[in-house]
Design brief:
Two copies of one chain form a homodimer. By secondary structure, chain A is an alpha/beta fold. Chain A folds into three domains: about 100 residues, Roll (Archaeosine Trna-guanine Transglycosylase, Chain: A, domain 4), CATH 2.30.130; about 140 residues, 3-Layer(aba) Sandwich (Rossmann fold), CATH 3.40.50; about 230 residues. Chain A contains 13 helices and 23 strands. In chain A, strand 7 and strand 8 form a beta hairpin. In chain A, helix 1 packs across helix 4 and helix 2 crosses helix 10. Chain A starts with a strand and ends in a 16-residue tail after the last helix. At the A-B interface, helix 1, helix 4, helix 7, helix 8 and helix 10 of A face helix 1, helix 4, helix 7, helix 8 and helix 10 of B. The complex binds calcium ion (5 copies). The site of one calcium ion (CA) has 5 residues of chain B, from strand 13.
């Protein structure tokens, strides 16, 4: 983005205009700006404008397009004077872009110069994937076993883990699927393949073990069918209903005995020098504000371009947050197949929301609006920039596993937990998460680097946020500076440096996307 | 049920026929019975019949009705000889009963003699409800805060709980709702009221505290609006995004400080003698087999009748497991309003399943079938008997809170976790769970009494199952015996005696029923 930062002095009034064609800009200053604030030679503020909220840079007549990111984010509900606060209720949202007649592969940039020589210390897997952490995962076929697995994981941590110094952690892959669900419904393939592919995440080193109940709908053979299982050195399933188990302790002992074998195998893994091309990065945003699309997300977009140049894989996601920019994406699709796959995912989600009686506007939150985002169009323009500028080389449907490198659109809901869960299933080994309002997000399976969009958040949450992109708004750093900083931090974290979420052991539950009914 | 137990000797071949009109019966013996087994004067088994599976008591011609529980559970796919195993594939499932023209209040039994003098030691709440445990609950508006709450709960348990000896536990009410969801969709009222009403469960004594992020869709004022909050001695909300929080430790300290106030208040609670009428019991089954409807569920049904006679509240649930017996329920409805409310819930669920491309037959599991249940009709007949014989005096839609006593149909999915979560929201203070295949189910908020349907399960899972109803199948105990045993155990557990799930601290996550889209 060609952002113009109106940043003469750190203490003076500041606004950011994202594109020459924009007729609005957002206020940078902490606490906002009072009515009467002068932007010399331009205008005087008619109202108090909160931080992150929009100022009318020119007078707008009723029905005039309101332009930000060079995109019509809405229309003026009534005439708006120059220098006024464009509060959310003054913006009439445009209808969603039709999905026919989209530009296909019209703006595909030629590949940028390869970025060579960047490496990290990772764990190589037999299947060619690379891990950033060395984790024993205990996957589950059904929620029924969750309490037992939780008990066993605690025992394994307390009694076994210290004997295997090369293993970072033991985690239970607990979830709410597996039984009491319509497992043969048309959309049930989504949660099933999600669970299957999570079990195969690179960080688990092909040593994932399975705890099954026995009578559940999601039988182990359905979760991990023959051929879909690169999991090594079988047998690897403990079934609680097996006749051999007499008493609770027998179940725990069986899980712990199997865990010992897996820990022995995992403990043989050692970090070795891997190319930056072995990174599989999932990017997303959550708790967004008007700065998300100005500071953190553009910096992530810059890092995305660096990763693609280095030969890595980057997934961007969040269907309702790219829906309004679908023309920007189809025009960057490397070929018509990729563009059509993206259109298919948008159409599927339009239909899914419609069946539930809503549309893409159901995405925005009170926090988004408080943070200055008038509607989903404005939010989407700020979200989509995480994808950088490279050609889009592939599309994943929800829960599918990656089969290629480069920049990939991994279709997921925008929900932070569902998006993270689906990116884990795709094979992510590093996660980047930007936030403006602030959220203590974390995942147990891969490190999460959290990027603050604002100085104030980075200051207050100094031991939760890993990177402060707020310096971009105040002119202390450029998008390029923070993009490079992020890129280098990714290599360090991939090599073992802990993020704040890891330091505090903060993580959220896996959350499946199940568009099919429960029973 | 007028079960005929063919139980001459503990070691001989045994079958159970549920009703005089039945033309099939199920095999009782552990391990099933081999081909050639003789039932003297009746027939010789044509095939091996697994335990719990059906024998044809007479020869059935192609298309003949197969009758169990005096109900047509299906039609013979081909001619079946007397003494044959009626394997699942030989049973053609009948269509669902139409929802018009149902019998309304035609079989309402007069109230049975009141059962007086049964009491337990409970905690009385200001709103008239009674608790069976004394628990500090920390509810959450959104999953974003789950990691922080988990960290805080651990600290509270380690550092504070022992100073408040009258408090049993501290639990985080974590869930996957609150943001990234279509919160204004037509069906979003279900998960929202569920979370609201769980916060008000009697076991939390009106001292529930709230941890909010700040920017989430489910704002605290929406979770617990003014007037819906009997929660006492406010302010009771910690908001992580509040400006006052600088650093992670500040959030944890704020939660712990508030927890101290709540623990002080809860610690003043003491058990006092309460009438059995103060019990609010939720009954459900999970991991069912053919014995569920023969042993455990009829015993629960007997106990249900005792509870109703004692003036208590009993909820039965699991819509797909009563759908095929809806005529039995509408005929027991105390009036036409109650019958129509039940019909409304059935119709809603039919439609919900249809939208997802399935019907009520999506309920059954591989374990059900392995256990002898041919289809959802047969399973439903065994499930519905948990409701006993009393008049049905009210209906709750999913997530609603109880407003009356007696026997209530609380409409929920059959999914163990979703059913348990919705019964918690209704105000349950004791949970009864029957299982044939076996599941280590538990809830953090209320005690769960688990009832095994079979001797073999009760023997192997001796430290997970609280009651063995399998003795009914072998003739060692009657339905009445086990029903009374359960009733008396309920009073003991309600008074503080720990269940096996509590002993091992086994519990499953809250699982919301959210029929609305995610974003
Ligand atoms: Ca987002
Ligand atoms: Ca997100
Ligand atoms: Ca059931
Ligand atoms: Ca159930
Ligand atoms: Ca507990």
């Amino acid at each position: 983005p060609s952002a113009v930062v109106q940043a003469v002095a750190r203490t003076g009034p500041l606004y950011i205009k994202m594109h020459d064609n924009d007729n609005v800009a957002i206020v940078v200053n902490d606490g906002g700006l009072p009515a009467g604030t002068e932007f010399p030679g331009e205008f005087v503020l008619k109202n108090r404008v909160p931080q992150g909220h929009k100022i009318a840079l020119i007078a707008l007549s009723e029905g005039a397009p309101i332009i930000r990111y060079d995109v019509v984010i809405g229309y003026a509900v009534r005439a708006i004077e120059q220098g006024s606060w464009i509060e959310e209720s003054l913006v009439r949202m445009p209808p969603a872009r039709e999905l026919d007649g989209l530009p296909i592969s019209t703006r595909v940039l030629p590949p940028a110069a390869a970025l060579e020589g960047y490496t990290f210390q990772g764990y190589r897997n037999a299947d060619g994937s690379v891990a950033t952490r060395n984790i024993l995962a205990i996957t589950t076929t059904v929620q029924c076993v969750a309490g037992v697995v939780e008990h066993a994981v605690k025992r394994i941590k307390d009694e076994l883990l210290s004997q295997y110094p090369n293993v970072d952690d033991v985690i239970g892959l607990e979830h709410t699927y597996g039984c009491g669900v319509a497992i043969d419904a048309p959309n049930a393939n989504i949660p099933i393949r999600t669970l299957r592919n999570i079990s195969l995440n690179p960080n688990f080193g092909g040593q994932t073990m399975v705890v099954s109940l026995g009578c559940e709908k999601l039988q182990p053979s359905r979760l991990l069918p023959e051929g879909a299982i690169p999991i090594q050195n079988g047998p690897y399933i403990v079934t609680l209903q097996d006749d051999v188990h007499v008493g609770f302790e027998s179940m725990i002992t069986a899980i712990m005995d199997m865990a010992k074998l897996r820990l022995q195998a995992l403990n043989l893994r050692t970090r070795e020098t891997c190319s930056a091309a072995d990174l599989v990065v999932g990017v997303q945003c959550g708790g967004s504000d008007a700065f998300s699309g100005v500071t953190a997300n553009p910096a992530v977009g810059y890092a995305t371009d660096l990763l693609v140049r280095a030969g890595a894989t980057v997934m961007f996601s969040e269907t309702t947050e790219v829906r309004d920019g679908i023309d920007q994406l189809t025009s960057r699709a490397i070929n018509a197949d990729v563009a059509n796959d993206m259109i298919r995912e948008m159409a599927w989600y339009d239909d899914y929301l419609k069946k539930g009686g809503v549309d893409r506007s159901a995405n925005t939150t009170p926090g988004n609006k408080k943070g200055g985002l008038a509607n989903i169009v404005e939010k989407a323009m700020g979200s989509i920039v995480k994808s950088g500028t490279s050609a889009i080389s592939g599309v994943l449907a929800p829960g599918e596993k990656l089969k290629q490198k480069g920049l990939i659109y991994a279709a997921t809901p925008a929900s932070d937990f569902i998006c993270g869960t689906l990116q884990l299933a795709a094979g992510m080994n590093l996660h980047i998460f930007t936030t403006g309002r602030g959220t203590p997000y974390g995942l147990a399976a891969v490190p999460v680097i959290k990027v603050a969009t604002r100085d104030d958040l980075a200051r207050r949450w100094h031991d939760l946020m890993d990177v402060n992109a707020g310096r971009i708004a105040t002119g202390e750093a450029t998008i390029e500076d923070v993009g490079w900083e992020l890129f280098k931090l990714m290599l360090e974290v991939a090599s073992g440096r802990k993020t704040w979420a890891e330091h505090w052991k903060l993580h959220n539950a896996l959350t499946l996307f199940n568009p099919a009914p429960v029973t």
